[in-house]
Design a protein that fits this description.
alpha+beta; binds adenosine-5'-diphosphate
Length: about 400
């Protein structure tokens, strides 16, 4: 260490002999560029920054830090080596390099306790009242990293879902062009399968587009009052053919009066179509689907509409329940594929309910069927009228 840097180190070490109350007491007359003035100024500047910021002396001891840094590393203390609060070898190395060479170092590291979080840190050498110091700025990258992971998973899942029917289509086209060229019966059968596969791809693309449309408008709450009763009845009418094919009777119990909610009609049609169609497809062996529309006052005192779709099919094991609304999640993959499912129906339901400030409740037990209940806030002034 040179003489000059040795004395600088001693001067900075002297900063910590002062209590912070003395350090911040800078009078306007005291314009001299002293270490305590410098600390007061840097405290004032970094306290206004949203990201965690830490200033170290060239020995790696903490000179100043803001609230963001204190929240991230509660063990930070002025005068202590930063390595006590941050046990991150990459950060220690970046501080050493910044001290040695100047310039800005960028590193990434992961904190695993109390929860896993990802950080990006910029470490640079600065001069504070003529003394070398190190400035560390941190960015919490956890949510960005999660979004990136979700997007990568989503693209992988969507590609996989599209590739499966596409591979089937290609295979059948080659068979029809080759071995089955002169076999009219086989050709007809294969064309039927190809139509189903093409239909599955179209449905997947429709669901993906619906999801992204709803996501784009997620923050815009619908405000047109719509009556849920005719919407549910319209969906049930539209699914009569499927119900007959599966041998299922659908029973709707609804109030005589309208059940008005602020809503988007098309999205609500899609919501109930998904729930009722699932009941018909997965719960077919129960032979019955019951739909009950009710209104009540929730525990928070707000009036709500409830639409419960109950089937008497095989039910869903408890471990699947929390994940059913994730994109492409299926309790039974083979069954979903056999039913022409995309794995996106309940994700759509959840997004539609979120946009309507509603909630989805799923109750099920193996062997005892499943009940999917959508709850939506009611248009307030209709409650007195409809309950009167
Ligand atoms: P899919 O397009 O596969 O039907 P959904 O998101 O609508 O996708 O449903 C996700 C999964 O939840 C389904 O694959 C199925 O395994 C399960 N599921 C949904 N509804 C029911 C139900 N009424 N009974 C049993 N399982 C169900």
């Amino acid at each position: 260490m040179s003489d000059e840097s040795g004395s600088a180190g001693r001067r900075i070490a002297g900063w910590f002999n002062r209590r912070s109350s003395q350090i911040t007491a800078v009078s306007p007359a005291d314009n001299e560029a002293s270490p305590q003035n410098a600390i007061a100024v840097i405290d004032a500047i970094i306290s206004g920054l949203p990201d965690p910021v830490i200033v170290l002396d060239r020995e790696g001891r903490v000179v100043a830090f803001n609230a963001g840094a204190a929240a991230l590393a509660p063990a930070l203390r002025r005068g202590d080596p930063a390595s006590i609060a941050f046990r991150v070898p990459e950060l220690v190395e970046a501080v050493r390099e910044a001290n040695a060479g100047g310039g800005v170092r960028r590193i990434e590291f992961t904190e695993r306790v109390p929860t896993e979080r990802y950080f990006e840190a910029f470490v640079s050498r600065i001069m504070l009242v003529g003394l070398p110091a190190v400035l560390i700025t941190l960015h919490d990258m956890t949510s960005i990293r999660r979004v990136e992971e979700m997007r990568a998973d989503f693209v992988a899942n969507a590609s996989h879902e599209l590739r499966t029917p596409l591979a089937a289509l290609t295979g059948f086209i080659e068979t029809i062009q080759g071995p089955a060229r002169d076999d009219a019966a086989a050709r007809d059968r294969f064309l039927g399968i190809m139509r189903d596969q093409a239909w599955r791809m179209a449905r997947l693309i429709d669901d993906l587009l619906s999801l992204s449309r709803i996501e784009l408008r997620a923050h815009m709450r619908p405000d047109t009052p719509v009556d849920l009763v005719p919407i549910v009845r319209q969906v049930v009418d539209g699914l009569q053919t499927l119900a007959q094919d599966r041998g299922v009777t659908v029973d709707v119990v609804a109030p005589v009066d309208p059940l008005m909610v602020p809503g988007d009609r098309d999205e609500l049609l899609s919501l109930f179509e998904n729930l009722i169609e699932n009941g018909l497809k997965y719960g077919a062996n129960g032979r019955r689907v019951d739909i009950a529309l009710t209104q009540f006052v929730a525990t928070d005192g707000k009036p709500e509409a409830s639409v419960a779709v109950r089937d008497y099919g095989p039910g869903i094991a408890a471990e699947h329940l929390p994940r059913l609304t994730e994109r492409f999640y299926r309790a039974d993959v083979a069954d979903s594929r056999a039913q022409g499912g995309t794995g996106l129906g309940l994700a759509l339901v959840k997004h539609i309910l979120n946009r309507h400030r509603g909630r989805l409740f799923i109750e099920s037990q193996i062997g005892k069927g499943a009940t999917f209940t959508a709850r939506l806030p009611i248009v307030e002034n209709t409650l007195e009228k409809t309950t009167a």
